[in-house]
Amino acid sequence: xxxxxxxxxxxxxxxxxxxxxxxxxxxxxxxxxxxxxxxxxxxxxxxxxxxxxxxxxxxxxxxxxxxxxxxxxxxxxxxxxxxxxxxxxxxxxxxxxxxxxxxxxxxxxxxxxxxxxxxxxxxxxxxxxxxxxxxxxxxxxxxxxxxxxxxxxxxxxxxxxxxxxxxxxxxxxxxxxxxxxxxxxxxxxxxxxxxxxxxxxxxxxxxxxxxxxxxxxxxxxxxxxxxxxxxxxxxxxxxxxxxx
Length: 244
Description:
By secondary structure, this protein is mainly β. 13% of the residues lie in helices and 43% in strands. It has two helices and 17 strands. The strands form four sheets. Strands 1, 8, 9, 10, 11 and 12 form a six-stranded antiparallel sheet that branches. A five-stranded antiparallel sheet has the order 15-14-13-16-17, with no helix packed on it. The protein has a four-stranded antiparallel sheet with strand order 3-4-5-6, with no helix packed on it. The chain is flat.
């Protein structure tokens, strides 16, 4: 016991030396004495996005489908239709009708069976139509709220389905908007049509109707002005009435 008491001053001196050394180190490195320092790692949050990307993929004639976008000579071409011609001798041939989405022109090419293509790498994102001015249509990116001007030639025949606030999908290729996709089916209101003639029960009787978007389509004779209807915007055809 006496020996341990005799060693107590030594241990106290040792502890004091450690504290003094620790204090000196913290002063030298810029930390206030008596405080604990923590290393903070800052991360940049990743934003959620509605953008979808179609990657470039190698395909052949057997993979061709209507609506597919192919890259030909560095430009995006949409498949409008195709037909396969079988031959008595030799491989079958596939004739494909394309629309150049950058120029608006159409071409028709014939390929040997198994010939290779590459799909175009495109991005799609949601947007809202706001207004048009002259030959330019303005849309707002639904995620970033950025205003996007698009020439009338790109909007093309989709113009007739657009009303203020319409939701669409914009298709982008190498930074350029190349196509506008309108939802199908979509709901519109008949704003002008001839009245239904009482007693007219002719099977398949149709009449022209102007919709609130400005498009004119054929509707059944029993559909009256003010009726909300569902329309196939791809074909421009009446589908049915909307019950609300």
